[in-house]
Amino acid sequence: MTYPQLTPLDEAGFKAYFLSHVTLVLLDKAKGEVLGTFYIKPNFPGRCSHICNAGFLVPPNARGNGAGRPSYLV
């Protein structure tokens, strides 16, 4: 409900929207689980590309564990 699409995306639509720019995925290698992911993409081209949007996805089982804190990412 927090993204602009009116209907759920299929896999191709999700990849086109979410993976079209810089995307980071945080994994727990020991468990083989995704802890979260985010994208950053510009709102405008050229000299205005520093104005951007970010989108975040965190699975329910990974929420509240501090995966977004810089110290976690070491």
Supply database-style keywords.
about 70 residues; mainly beta; three-stranded antiparallel β-sheet; 1 helix; 3 strands; globular
Layout of secondary structure:
Layout: H1 11-18, E1 22-28, E2 33-42, E3 52-57
Antiparallel strand pairs: 1-2, 2-3
Give a brief rundown of this model.
The protein has one helix at about 10-20; strands at about 20-30, 35-40, 50-55. The protein has about 70 residues and is mostly beta strands.
Tell me the total number of β-strands: 3
Gyration radius over CA: 14 Å
On the 0-100 scale, what is the average pLDDT? 84
> Approximately how much helix is present in the residues?
10-25%
- The domain tally reads 1
Helix/strand/pairing category: mainly beta
Largest sheet: 3 strands, antiparallel
Shape: globular
How would you describe the overall organization of this protein?
With about 70 residues, the protein is mostly beta strands. About 10% of the residues lie in helices and about 30% in strands. The protein has one domain. The protein is globular and about 40 Å long. The model has no long low-confidence stretch (mean pLDDT about 85).
